[in-house]
Specification:
Length: 162
């Protein structure tokens, strides 16, 4: 059996002068402020984590992420993704599609590295990770450059063991 889930996340940019780095899909993006949030605020991984939660019915972003971030000081969203993946017993991700809306930064130079990072984190082939990016044409707050919005769709297959 196949299952499909959608996840999304968004964060606004930090105030100028904040030294927080912009992390998307597990990689650092140069030349743009970081995103506000307790963790690294990686909206790409957070959207994927929320989609995983849609499959497993176990929410990670919330109490579990707060425990890791606020109580243990773990701000790396790859750790939260690992926690989410551990809830998917008997299921295998076969494809992920990511759509990012952001006026800034220009993401085209980073998409291949993001695909590789996501594929490694999910344990799937890089050709099973699709990423698109749009400027939003100024129609939303993200299209006006105030932050970044991301949607992720997972396709998952039940794995039966004997």
């Amino acid at each position: 059996m196949f299952r499909v889930a959608i996840g999304q996340d968004s964060h606004e940019f930090t105030e100028s002068g904040d030294n927080k780095k912009l992390i998307l899909g597990g990689i650092e993006i140069e030349g743009c402020p970081g995103l506000s949030g307790n963790s690294d605020a990686d909206v790409v991984l957070h959207a994927i984590i929320n989609a995983v939660s849609g499959i497993s019915c176990v929410n990670i972003l919330g109490e579990r992420a707060d425990e890791l971030c606020l109580n243990q000081g773990i701000k790396d969203s790859r750790v939260y993704l690992k926690e989410a993946l551990e809830t998917m017993k008997g299921k295998k991700i076969i494809h992920v599609s990511v759509s990012i809306e952001a006026k800034r930064p220009k993401l085209a130079p980073y998409l291949e590295r993001m695909r590789q990072s996501i594929a490694a984190s999910l344990g799937i082939d890089v050709n099973s990770v699709g990423i698109t990016a749009t400027s939003g044409e100024g129609l939303t707050e993200f299209g006006k450059g105030r932050g970044i919005f991301c949607t992720a769709i997972l396709t998952v297959q039940d794995v039966f063991t004997n």
